[in-house]
Each structure stands twice: as structure tokens, then as C-alpha cells.
Amino acid sequence: MDVNKLQPILNKESILKTANAKELGQDPQVVLQRYQKYALTHVPLGDTTKQLKNLERVVAENKTCAIGTIVGPYGYGKTSTAVHLWNELRETHVLAVPPFLWVNLQELIDAVYHWVRFEFKLGPAKYIKELEMLHDRYAESGLERLPDSIDREAALELLERGLLNLEMRPDDVVQFYSDVAGLVLKAGYRGLAVFTDELQVTVADYKPSRDQFFNDLFQIVKDTIDRPGKWAIIMSMDDGTEGIIAQMRNDLLQRMQRSALYFRVKDVY
Asked: In Å, how far are 85, 126, 128, 130, 217 from 122, measured between CA atoms?
């Protein structure tokens, strides 16, 4: 198949607006409808059966966690592939968090919390309180790291309004995902899958710095791979971002490429 001839079709990806972490909290129903509509009208340009089976096996059957990566040039269907895999996993009763943008560690935690809470509202609502208590515990640990000069009540109000970025750490993210995955299993799901999109945006806008991004992502990847549990993070990135990672932190890229969940969309096509 000549992918170049399909470029007008492939560029349909750019029509789909990727949700950010805040949208998953404020408008989850809108995000669900938007992504499901796209997934139901998605015309696969290649066979992703192998990738889907690998994902399902890792999340629902394996006893250890994993990192997944979807790589390809701009417009070659990374987002549409991620949305397709998210929707298919969701149909198998895996609690899958749809692709979202993030620019700090707080957003990695908040996006998953808000989406899991939304899914619980649609089904096992009795676990919402336990999820809220879990999230509050991480928020409290972040608040404890704030300088004493900052008023705690004011900080809590800003946090609830999404206007405060706590100094979360990579190990906070990994442990939070592990704790949420345990609750997800308790609620009757088969596992947890977290999709993030457009890693090039994260690299460009990451707070506090790009160097800190590489350090944080390396720690997350290192601590996730082979960790006991039934969950995975699947990230989408373009070729340019992969090149930057190869140049800046090749040790990070090597870890990501060793996973069975690493694939290039051009190879699928």
C-alpha cells in the first residue's frame, strides 16, 4: 500500500482534537462522545489486531506492567490508532483512559483520576468514594511539599479549580496508577490502560523544563516496566520527538523500544 497516496485520508487525524487533562475532568461525557464517534467511523488502514492482542494480553493477563509507544510522522494516524485501540480495549472491559495531552506530572494523575471516576459513575459507582480518598491522599502529600508561606486552604481551593500544580514526583505517578489499577480490578475490570498523545507537545511545554521532562519520563518508564500489576501506559509520539529522545536520552528510548507494545504506524500500513 502506498501511504503517500493516502495522505489526504491519513490527515483526518488532524481533525480529531486530542483532549487535554482538564477536559477529562470537566467534560468527560463530551470527550467520550467525540472519541467514540471517531472510533466508530474509523477506517483502519492496516491490521492492528496484533497490537490490540498484545495490549490486551499485557494489561489483562500478564502479571507485570508495561510501557507502550505508537510512533509515526505527523498525519500518519497515531491519534486515530490510539483512539481505535482505546475503544477496542474498552469493549473488552479494560478500563482504558482515552488519549490526552499532559505538560506536568500533576496532569498525569488528575486525568486518570477524573476518567476512572467518570467510568465508575457509569457502572460500579460504589467505588467512587474509595477512589476520591485515594486521590485526596496524593493531593495531601503534594500539599505537604509546598512552602509554609503558602496558605493551605487557599492552596486547596486553587487545586480543586485546577489552578495549582503540585510538585508531584515520578514515583507518585507510578504508585498512583498501581493503586488505581488495584481498585479498578476490585471494581470488576480486567485492568487499566492509560493512553497519552502528542508527546512532542509535552516536550515543548513541560514544566519546569525539558531536561526535567526527560528525567521524569525516564523514571516513570524505568519504574513501570516489569512492575507487578495489571496496567500499562501507551504514549504516541512523532518521529521528530523520537529523534530528540534518541539524542538526549538514548537509554530511555532503548527501554521503550524493548517493549512488545512499541510499534510504528507506517509498519502497520
From this structure: 20, 11, 11, 16, 32
